[in-house]
């Protein structure tokens, strides 16, 4: 089977909630999905912050679908697909609280458990192996995938950036959900979603973000990853 | 500082030993370095196997420097740069035995600690974090870097493949040694060596090989990695 980005499910108009959507990664993804015509809900722990972020994003050029803000729980309930962009610090506790709201949903974890010290970024140890595996353990009734770990929030949120050259590694056990997330990745111009393995191979994808941040700092870029030969 | 492959040390004619050089990865790297004009020594636990591999490689098209075979210890002693391509199984024991032979050398570990089962490849847990960190712990008097983890041995050993499109992640603490290894990576046509971080960020680079193997199987390719924007 050759890689074929055209042979993926149609995700036109699918609604997306982004939990922790007021952070850099969440804002950037929310903006790009709204530009691609997906109704987006920014979820947060406080309504005011969620609404402020939603209003800010809705004012950016090219937005082609409504962007709303609400608390994480109702945001999760009303969306087709839910992206987890929470700070790693509150990841486990927040997901445990939201397990019922997320039941039956395709849940896409994009959290990178990283630490930073005087020597730069590094991967934090995660008892479950990765943030995505932690999500899968806490959300047994959701269809948990990992994706969008390496995309630069700076590029996502810059309306002047027309295309982001990046292959998005989608991790997951549920092939159908993985293919939906691959299709969703393709909604960002320049991006391709590739199925890079099962959840047990998520830790290194998340941790590799530390290497990209090292490269960003060293070479003054917003580095991404392309898989060659695909 | 922009990425500048030209601003790296001159490694013309540097001699290279490959320990465990009779395996696929070792053979492939040995071939490409000999094509690039580097005298190569294939190291093995048995002289006969080392010599047989060396003779086989020397017969391939384009080889521009001598390829010899010898035991791992003398191979290590006489080379400028030593590449560790041992099976993960014997990695720690063999390096512990060779610590004196490797003292003062630039040592480049390219070992991927991987397991395989019915569900495919996966990263093995490593007490030190990674093969490269294990090497650094066992070889305190060597200048240990990690590199060449993702390069496909199939592409390396195929004389019909003129260029291998790949960015080689070089990990290390010793900036000067890292730059030498970056230059060495650039000796393989199509490859660039990039400094992707300190040794503590090696685990995910090694483990990511499992994701590439998943992609290889799924999409029938020999996948590599390019860092975008560099």
TrEMBL record, chains A, B:
Pfam families: F420_oxidored. GO terms for molecular function: coenzyme F420 binding; cupric reductase (NADH) activity; ferric-chelate reductase (NADPH) activity; NADP binding; oxidoreductase activity, acting on NAD(P)H. InterPro entries: NAD(P)-bd_dom_sf (IPR036291), NpdG (IPR010185), P5C_Rdtase_cat_N (IPR028939), STEAP_metalloreductase (IPR051267). Gene3D superfamilies: NAD(P)-binding Rossmann-like Domain. It comes from the Bacteria. GO terms for cellular component: plasma membrane. GO terms for biological process: copper ion import; NADPH regeneration. Keywords: Oxidoreductase. The keyword Oxidoreductase applies. Residues 15-113 form the Pyrroline-5-carboxylate reductase catalytic N-terminal domain. Transmembrane segments: none annotated. SUPFAM superfamilies: NAD(P)-binding Rossmann-fold domains (SSF51735). This is NADPH-dependent F420 reductase. It comes from Natronosporangium hydrolyticum. The gene is npdG.
